Amino acid sequence: MAKEAELTISDLAERSGMTVRTLRDYNERGLLPPPKMKGRTGFYGPEHLDRIRIVERLVERGITLNGVRGLLEAWDRGQDLADVLGVATADTPLPPQDATPDGLIAAAELADRFAAAPDGLARSVTAGLYEPVDPGTYRVTESALLEVFEQLLDAGVSTDRALDEVEQLRLDCDHIARQFTDIFVRTAVRQFQRSNRAEADAEAFAAQLDSVRARPAAITATVVGRFVERYVGRVVDREFPGMFSPGT
């Protein structure tokens, strides 16, 4: 396996779930930092993976690639990405406000919550926890990820480390989703493309489409749950032998 700090563009594509063509386009548009050159080969590292993650989140919010470049250029000049993303500045303060039942929270309050981590507010967006509604308000994006984040904080994990864990969890989930999508493309999509597009073909494709939307969550929950039970059981048996039986 290539070292994380010495990824070729092909390695970077595999690690990020992007295509080489897309990454080359990002390079040409100035969305990624220049690679470190060794001879004629460019090498990439964790900072490039982080940047790709940020670009994807901004694009998901409907920002064009040109707009993303402008945001990133402002960030690289030293402007806080939280400000770039629409958080009120000290010149336009907003009153603190806890999250409401519909998941809304004042930007100033959210900035305070993530102040302990470098670029904490921006990372809360790229990690999928929150997204801006308007310049003064954010809302919860993924309540499940937010619950994990808050549990980590309750366990004494630092904000910075908790964000790292949630960011990685989101990447892992994204990777699984891409795998299911790839299988769907190689099977259902290809079959329908080769079909006569008759009514029966369309019905079969629609059924497969419903399945790929519904089944991954159940499959993943079952398999991940089984692995967690196995690994947690080993840890408990090793650290506290004989004290806790399965299901305790």
From TrEMBL:
Keyword DNA-binding appears in the UniProt entry: yes
Q: Which residues form the HTH merR-type domain?
A: 6-74
Q: Which Gene3D superfamilies match?
A: 1.10.1660.10
- Keyword DNA-binding recorded: yes
Any one Gene Ontology MF annotation carried by this entry is: DNA binding
Keywords assigned by UniProt, alphabetized: DNA-binding
Q: Which Pfam families does UniProt cross-reference here?
A: MerR_1
Protein name (record): HTH merR-type domain-containing protein
Task: List the source organism.
Answer: Nocardia ninae NBRC 108245
Q: What broad taxonomic lineage does this protein's source fall under?
A: Bacteria, Bacillati, Actinomycetota, Actinomycetes, Mycobacteriales
